[in-house]
Amino acid sequence: MIVEDALGNQFDSDSRYRRIVSLVPSQTEYIINLIGDSTTYKVLGRTKFCIHPSNKVSDITIVGGTKQIHIKKIKALNPDIVICNKEENTQKIVKEIEPYFQVFTTEIISIDSALDYMMRIAKLLGLAENGNKINTQIKQAMFGYQPIKQKKAIYLIWKNPYMAAGGDTFIDKMMYAAGFNNVLHDQMRYPSVTIDEIKALRPNVIFLSSEPYPFEDKHLSEFDKLDITTCVVDGEMFSWYGTRMLKSWEYFKKLSEKLK
After folding, report:
1. Which fold has domain 151-259?
2. The domains spanning 2-141 and 151-259 adopt the same CATH topology
3. What's the confidence (pLDDT) of residue 148?
4. 118: left (phi over 0), alpha (psi -120 to 50) or beta
């Protein structure tokens, strides 16, 4: 079976990709869950941000971060395939690895594309049956969730300057599915915003994401003068695709109940 990645590269699933390095936290978790208890496959390398599943990643070699890697460490692991993502990783990283190993790159901009690339990875590894099961479980959890009420929201991912999720992001699609209309839906990527601009957008709620900037409750006071409901949210639930999506919908339910 031929599987195509986001860069148009084609891979033959009969090539037996068994030794894997994953440079994307959510994809690392997904691949580990996809493999399950099989001893045929092994995730050999990960980034320092690949923290799930916590009971399994500790034995996997850290080969750098999502933006910088240690190519010597990857070469020493001698993987059959390296899994990257267009947003999480850089073109420089892909180019650095390609002379030595095959690189499969994903591009996630929606829930549908997340499910699509999850299945592509499953087919690439020859684990389509396991992939179908996981995708079905995610769809069941998603379709079983009903937003209490649509609210206007802004989702901040960074501070100094404040940056927020725009409309062409996976976060935007998860926000909408959770019952929150992104007030920056008409903007691209992650625009910078000021406190005054947030006020002018008139959201019902301001989300402070726990990642990539580690917003905490101590940051809530920065928005007191706006008199807008502001809360810290688990960034993994809005931005991680893969098996983390199985947990998102119960989280959204509790969040919606808290904000109603």
Report:
1. Rossmann fold (3.40.50)
2. yes
3. 76
4. alpha
Q: Which residue in 98, 117, 127, 194 sits closest to 154, CA to CA?
A: 194
In the beta sheet, which residues pair with residue 164?
A: 156
Q: What is 2-141's CATH number?
A: 3.40.50.1980
- The helices-and-strands tally (H runs, E runs) of the chain is 9, 13
pTM over 0.90: yes
DSSP 8-state symbol, 184: T
Does residue 37 surpass a pLDDT of 80? yes
How distant is the alpha carbon of residue 146 from its chain centre? Answer: 22
Are 121 and 27 in contact by the 8 Å Cβ rule? The answer is yes
What residue segments make up the domains of the chain, in order of their start? 2-141, 151-259
- Compute the distance between CA of residue 71 and CA of residue 84 in angstroms, rounded to an integer: 14
Contact, 6 vs 105, CB < 8 A? yes
What CA–CA distance (Å, rounded) separates 48 from 66? 8
- With beta carbons less than 8 A apart as the criterion, state whether 134 and 127 touch: no
**Is residue 236 a contact partner of residue 54, using CB atoms and an 8 Å limit?**
no
SS3 96: helix
pLDDT at 8: 97
Q: To which residue do tokens 């995610």 refer?
A: 138
Q: Alpha-carbon dihedral of residues 182, 186, 192, 196, nearest 10 degrees?
A: -70
Q: Are strands 229-233 and 205-209 parallel, antiparallel or unpaired?
A: parallel
Helix (H) or strand (E) holding 30: helix 25-35
Q: What is the rounded distance in angstroms from the CA atom of residue 164 to the CA atom of residue 104? A: 28
